[in-house]
Amino acid sequence: MKIIITLLMFLFISSVYPADKDRGRVMEEEPVGKEKIVMVSIKYGNGFIDIGKSNRENVYEGEFIYKGYRPDIKYKVIGEEGYLDIYFSGDVSKGDDEEKSRRINSFDELYDNEMMLKFNPEIPMNLDFDFGVIKGDLDLSGLSLKNIDLEVGVSKTEIFFLEPNPVVMESFSIEGGVGKLNIEKIGNARLREFNFEGGIGSYELDFSGEYKENMEAKIELGMGKLVLYLPTEIGTRITVDKTFLSSFSIDDVYKNGDVYTNDRWEKTRYNLDLNIETGPGKIDVIWVK
Known about the structure:
Elements: H1 2-16, E1 23-31, E2 37-53, E3 58-67, E4 72-78, E5 81-88, H2 97-103, E6 114-119, E7 125-139, E8 145-160, E9 169-184, E10 191-198, E11 200-206, E12 215-221, E13 225-231, E14 235-242, E15 247-249, E16 254-256, E17 259-261, E18 271-278, E19 282-288
Parallel strand pairs: 2-5, 2-6, 2-7, 7-8, 8-9, 9-10, 9-11, 10-12, 11-13, 12-18, 13-19, 14-18, 15-19
Antiparallel strand pairs: 1-3, 3-6, 4-5, 14-17, 16-17
């Protein structure tokens, strides 16, 4: 009876997870050494990415699933600085941007590559990400982040700051092409300067969270749709540069020309100052507690 059950389980697993001789897996981890800060540089052609926290005994832990192109992973320490370089190419899916944007919801042919990375929350890091066509869950909650530079072509990505950053982040820059992007609890990032450039897509930026710094944010929107979630308890000023084709919707503010402020502007310890430049896009502001 046990043999029959085992055989049935094997047949079931084989049907759900068919064997693929072209696929490979790489497991990597790096024990904590003398590094005081880590510079992370990732170039990723296409696939799925998941980021979170690692075991505190390791600088990072990674699992890489690939088809055809084995990722190139290098780590070195110079003085007190660690350098993690990952080049994970893969075949970039054929077709124009519109076709890629349609397929990104189902992700046909994109799960050939998967990258799961976990980082030590106690070691400060600079992140430099260059992504092609990806779907991702980037949980940066509680990580010690000094700077982030993210460039992405076609994506369906969620970024989370559900726990406060232990250190001050100087800059967070995002350049998005086509697709969907959602960032939650940006206020927890302890961020001083936020820069966002969106192309054609749907974007949600949630600026709520626990503020420990004044934040300046610059947002440039092309033909996309942007929803801004702004905290009512933080003094907020919004300066908007728009065309007659732009749509900008906001409630419960004081308006002076193209400048909007809430009733707490310059009355709270920390303030949020947003500058928005938009083409024929649509922007909605929603106030949250």
